[in-house]
Amino acid sequence: MRTLQFLLIVFFFSFFSMAQIPSSLNLMPVPAKVQVGAGQLVVDQAFTAVSTGHRDDRLERGISRFLDQVSRQTGMTLNGQPADASNATLVIHAENAGRKVQELDEDESYALEITPSRATLTAATALGALYGLQTFLQLIEPTPAGFAVPVITIQDRPRFAWRGLLIDASRHFIPIEVLKRNLDGMAAVKMNVLHWHLSDDEGFRVESKRFPKLHELGSEGQYYTQAEIRDFVAYARDRGIRVVPEFDMPGHSRSWMAGYPELASVPGSYRAGRIADADTVMDPTRDGTYKFLDKFVGEMAALFPDAYFHIGGDEVNNKPWDSNPKIQEFIRAHGMKNNRDLQAYFNQRLQKIVQKHGKIMMGWDEVLHPDLPKTVLVESWRGQDSLAEAAKQGHLGLLSYGYYLDLMWPAARHYAVDPMAMTTTGGAAALTAEEKKRILGGEACMWSEFVTPETIDSRIWPRLAAIAERLWSPQEVRDNQSMYRRLEEVSWRLGWLGLNHESNYPLLLQRLAGSHDIGALRVLADVVEPTKDYTRTEVFPQPPVKSTPLNRMADAARPESTVTRQFSELVDGYFQSDYKDSAAEAQIRASLVNWRDNDVNLQPVLDRSFLLTEDKPLSTDLAALAAAGLEALDSIDKNQPLPDAWRAAQLAVVDRSMKPRANLLVMVAPPIQKLIAATAASH
Amino acid sequence: MRTLQFLLIVFFFSFFSMAQIPSSLNLMPVPAKVQVGAGQLVVDQAFTAVSTGHRDDRLERGISRFLDQVSRQTGMTLNGQPADASNATLVIHAENAGRKVQELDEDESYALEITPSRATLTAATALGALYGLQTFLQLIEPTPAGFAVPVITIQDRPRFAWRGLLIDASRHFIPIEVLKRNLDGMAAVKMNVLHWHLSDDEGFRVESKRFPKLHELGSEGQYYTQAEIRDFVAYARDRGIRVVPEFDMPGHSRSWMAGYPELASVPGSYRAGRIADADTVMDPTRDGTYKFLDKFVGEMAALFPDAYFHIGGDEVNNKPWDSNPKIQEFIRAHGMKNNRDLQAYFNQRLQKIVQKHGKIMMGWDEVLHPDLPKTVLVESWRGQDSLAEAAKQGHLGLLSYGYYLDLMWPAARHYAVDPMAMTTTGGAAALTAEEKKRILGGEACMWSEFVTPETIDSRIWPRLAAIAERLWSPQEVRDNQSMYRRLEEVSWRLGWLGLNHESNYPLLLQRLAGSHDIGALRVLADVVEPTKDYTRTEVFPQPPVKSTPLNRMADAARPESTVTRQFSELVDGYFQSDYKDSAAEAQIRASLVNWRDNDVNLQPVLDRSFLLTEDKPLSTDLAALAAAGLEALDSIDKNQPLPDAWRAAQLAVVDRSMKPRANLLVMVAPPIQKLIAATAASH
């Protein structure tokens, strides 16, 4: 208490530009404006929160979840005495409840003011208040005087109105409870749209009462009932998250044909599943197709309250259209030039149907065509230029390019992608102010060819938080070091929401080893990453065989190796110190010794389990890389350059390590390569 | 496939006595009879299981859960083709369904026969088949040729019919979902009784429709509804687990008096909660008490289908009876000698009520009295002699003494406690064959003064598996080394059931540190254990203040430190090798260096968080102990004894380390003490 008073006496404000959030704060995304004061507000068992504004059920439930979360984070049961605004620790005031169905243009801003005696959260809408509560949760830290939040003033609002995550529930079905914990995670980092990819070649995942064969024959029994969907949409709304459904058409629609083969461009019988080079495409020339879609869209439009309705429209395979003379004849008869024009025709008719049922159509960037109605929102996955092009043509746009989580990129690479960036060929930065306004934000995409309910959390988190920050925080917030520091802090705290991206890692390694003893296995697993982009080599099983097991090291390994990142930073620091930082050198040496000596312990483990035999050369090469790194360090230390032949031999191992094997890359190869390269010249 | 054929050619059987299970098997509890063959049966995505016996819904649901669990353990989706007995991988045959309400004397035996081409599980009842499925799950391992179970023949049945776990839901309320995952864990190690301690001074946890003020005023809103209880009992029955409710009376009943003060021996107004030295006891002299209990027991007897009804009966405080002249007058008027006789009178009347409602009464060993009807089952928590005494007097009996999980004993100590053991003063071993039959088994007890929903898994698991083995496996199974090896393997696999005793540990440490970086903190946390027996020093809060937070290192630390146990074994091995095992010495040295050097990194972390400041002296002492150990190692190495004064100084640190501070013990002190002691004489 004396400490607090003392701090009050020396009370001061520190201001900082948005690009530099103080390292004492673990906020992510970084708020628009922050002033840090001195002192703190203790959060103990007497903590209370009360709302004084517009009476709103959603906010009350949000406050109740917030209090539960305070309790979970701190391990304290709150006394929960009745409190009113005059004595509550946190007073929350929202002017109004927000719209019944959450909309794109709602005011999401909030202000949070914390003094040593109380905290005040104000917002125009309940939505803004919910964001403010998330900020408060991120501010709670253990201090020498108890759990506390710092004295601070925050004025915050998002840069973009659309901050989404796509989850593909078709390629692998993702159960509702897994989706729900991910909604909780999204809410924690202030994302506001779940884009639910509900149908694709591999599975149709929604119960349809109008066309029951869609889910009955198109899902292998794995689909969401309409009751589950209603409950899920309400769960999302409670957390300030809109749910936008996607039904991909006319391509990526094989699963529909299992029950309704008459939709297909080529007659036949179909089963859901991925068939290499044999995509299935709807027939846009038949009136029956549109009659079907009218009823179907009508049913789904009633089920999903959001204003937007995503029709996919990507990657339409030409083959089925080319191979059907009737369809080619239709193209000629209607004065179209090609299949592209035919898809535009399909989109125009579909747009009328979507609009008739009260929704705004959106689609992937292939839908862009001079004939496309301007009301259609275009989501760009192929590049930043196509986003700019859509905006130029008058469409609202979203960026997904650069935010594909299944590509296994490091967080920093996603973080660097800005929807408004200048590209070599233009990009959104070159647009007029009017055109720029059409760019609403972006969406991270979790395509699920290679994720299962048990691995999906580790593919989404923590990297999604970096994308969330890109879409919420001011454009100038882009310091990687700060981002990674905060990302690590956000990451473990997401564990309180039940996300298992951290907690499941040892269990997956134990399965691989068939043993509790994963010491040596973890040394290897910690320095590898799943192969990047679309280089994974599994053969997709043919229907009706269920999925290829995703239970290898490539599934357990994290998309981004923290151990490697830190080792790289150490090596870079050592070079920058002109090889004089002996503490860094000692740490580098210790890591290298650990990696070199690990192989002899690990090989017997890899021999015992069929899941691991494919990883044997990786372990051998890690040892070889580490041995080379140690030789290089000695060479640098003694200023005794090594011969070119030695380097050439080592670089062969480096090359091999950075090529996918067992769908993995040995990520310490590049920093070790730097050590090897440094043995060439004296220094 | 070739490997399999080769193995078949050299097919042989190895037999082993029950005391020695092969180290290739991770079965726990050890089955009654095992013959291991050569070769294996592959478990791949084509795996199927079919039942051929008596049609039984419970078994079908059990098989469905089993298949889900195969999938979860292996990370493989099973194809799930329809299968019949002629082509199923595993054929399950149960003669009958077992009783509608599970009973004590049901046949729990099963036989499992695995050949390289198929597996057959046979059992008298569905109950036995469920146990056999658990055994099959424990046999699945990754091998060089895929997931597989070994060729094996098992004939198994439990040694004791009553293998229970008590969970105290009164001191801290334990939500249903936490209980359910613990039921799954119990089923995995073949336990068959959940003893649900539902009322105590601190809380009354069951909805009563007859006496709603019991839960309304006695639970702070934390209770189970009757619908939840029915669902929970069905969930347990599906897993072969009986649910025995306990309503503790006439003592430990303060929470009842919150709503019904007329039950109390001393007039007054009451609130649920622990009041030091002021236990509240029912008034056994009023007829109204029995009228109340008649209605209450009637309601609960209908809610809980099990044949047994636990009335507590332990630790009745004399004060309330002594202080009420009317009660003392009643004792005299009825020719009783003392309060003990009054409790016996209460028990006799209560037994009639319990019996009238169709139940068999059971109570803690204080209920034992010459007047107690012989039908009452006695559960002994005070010692093995009182169990033997109850059996001698004609009562059925259960042992809980020695199985109290809240005492934080190592698994080996619980494992050594046998209900049938010889004690210095007799024990069950001295009973006649007839009397011995009355001892039905035992129950582990998870009293919840110091556990919360987030820590309870780590207090129950993995140690409960060792007690489960004591109660299931043949008496001669008692090798600690084998037990610990298998315990570690069982432990991580329990993670597939959602038990978080392993996965939650890093998260709890991160909360303590307020940081993702717990490297140094974990070094300390790994070598401490919560203080033993009832030496924990928190002051219980007074009502209505909610619980003292249990969020310190003493709550995160495991009851038994594996690191310490392994270090102790190393030191013992080093001594047994006559100080010649240089590999052991190197490992000992590496651990000591790690502990010695950790303190300087850890102190700043401990300074930052009020949750950790109390642990500062422990870290300092760990460093001092490690430094002393290193000096001792050098002395031993060089055969240069150290002076008595040096040893005396070091032993002061050892003494301090083994006294509770921050409710923790530094468990590496004893093995380091051995090193210190060895510096005295030359060797």
What does this structure look like?
2 copies of one chain form a homodimer. Chain A has 683 residues and is an alpha/beta fold. Chain A folds into 3 domains: 31-156, 2-Layer Sandwich (Chitobiase, domain 2), CATH 3.30.379.10; 162-480, TIM Barrel; 505-677, no CATH class. Chain A has 25 helices and 19 strands. In chain A, strands 9, 10, 11, 12, 13, 14, 15, 16 and 17 form a 9-stranded mixed beta sheet that branches. In chain A, strands 1, 2, 3, 4, 5, 6, 7 and 8 form an 8-stranded mixed beta sheet that branches. The first copy, chain A, has a two-stranded antiparallel ribbon with strand order 18-19. In chain A, helix 21 (562-576) runs antiparallel to helix 22 and helix 23 packs parallel to helix 25. The model of chain A is unreliable at 1-15 (pLDDT under 50). Chains A and B meet through helix 2, strand 7, helix 17 and helix 18 of A and helix 2, strand 7, helix 17 and helix 18 of B.
Return Rg of chain A in Å.
Answer: 27 Å
Q: Which residue ranges of chain A are poorly predicted, with pLDDT under 50 across at least 5 consecutive positions?
A: 1-15
Helix % of chain A is 40-55%
| CATH class annotation of the largest domain in chain A | Alpha Beta
CATH-defined fold name of the largest domain in chain A: TIM Barrel
Average pLDDT of chain A works out at 93
